[in-house]
Design brief:
Blueprint (H helix, E strand, L loop, with lengths): L2 E3 L1 H6 L10 H10 L8 E7 L5 E9 L2 E9 L1
Parallel strand pairs: 1-4
Antiparallel strand pairs: 2-3, 3-4
């Protein structure tokens, strides 16, 4: 499945709360979500390779899975 990370989500990775989360972590988390996600939904409880816990908001579109934002813990 193709994972598309929005510019908004990429910009948030530079904020202090999201430090330690990489694009690869987001892509892996998005691929772990089973089934079809027709509306934007928050998925909780992912952990980056650096140890930072985070949530993602994602939705399925025709081109793949769109990650709208990242929320660090």
């Amino acid at each position: 499945m193709r994972v598309i990370v929005t510019d908004h989500a990429r910009q948030r990775l530079f904020e202090e709360r999201q430090r330690g989360i990489r694009i690869e972590d987001i892509s892996k988390a998005a691929r772990l979500i089973p089934g079809l996600v027709p509306v934007a939904t928050r998925f909780r409880g992912f952990v980056s390779l650096g140890g930072r816990a985070f949530d993602i908001v994602a939705k399925d579109i025709a081109q793949g899975r769109l990650v709208i934002t990242v929320i660090g813990k």
